[in-house]
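User: quick one, sequence for these tokens?
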């Protein structure tokens, strides 16, 4: 079966940290491809400071265009209503039953995934690749993984990566303050943000 990684996020904007974790996951887990999935309507975030889907999709496309193993999916932005990981995975499995999915996320999410909609569906439809910042996993992390494996038969692998001190919120703040964001994200994405004057004001509206 084809092994496909899934990296979802608001991508507001996409940045080097996203690309680094995707590349690392592909290499460590031997994935064939990585699907970048910009979120639609997130029930976890205030939509008032999130760029329209078309712009986040375009920036993500620019960021990954030079990597033949990275692909863009609009499965969540095409769907009406809130975006839920369980629904995305269910739809992908229905469309492509011959593919095996690996959900890429930060290891801190393991402590909150049971609060997501239908976590049993998520664990049933995808293996988890959890990126740990730093070189060591804590006893709490080991305990949580054991708990999820016992309760959901979850397949969880830890990816160890050095901390990349870049975040979308940091980029938005720097732009609003008139500071440089060069080298924090692909140059074509930076140019697109500059050309369209994105994030220059804090009160971004769709």
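Assistant:
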């Amino acid at each position: 079966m084809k092994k496909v990684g899934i990296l979802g996020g608001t991508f507001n904007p996409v940045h080097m940290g996203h690309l680094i974790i995707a590349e690392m996951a592909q290499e460590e887990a031997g994935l064939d491809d990585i699907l970048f999935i910009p979120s639609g309507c997130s029930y976890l975030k205030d939509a008032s400071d999130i760029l329209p889907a078309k712009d986040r999709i375009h920036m993500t496309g620019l960021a990954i265009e030079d990597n033949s193993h990275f692909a863009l999916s609009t499965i969540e932005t095409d769907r009406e209503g809130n975006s839920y990981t369980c629904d995305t995975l269910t739809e992908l499995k229905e469309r492509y039953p011959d593919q095996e999915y690996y959900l890429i996320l930060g290891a801190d999410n393991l402590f909150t995934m049971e609060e997501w909609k239908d976590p049993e569906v998520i664990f049933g439809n995808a293996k988890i690749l959890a990126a740990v910042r730093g070189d060591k996993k804590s006893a709490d992390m080991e305990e949580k993984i054991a708990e999820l494996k016992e309760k959901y038969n979850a397949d969880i692998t830890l990816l160890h990566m050095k901390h990349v001190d870049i975040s979308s919120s940091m980029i938005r703040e720097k732009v609003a303050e008139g500071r440089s964001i060069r080298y924090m994200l692909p140059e074509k994405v930076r140019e697109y943000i500059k050309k369209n004057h994105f994030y220059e004001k804090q009160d971004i509206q769709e």
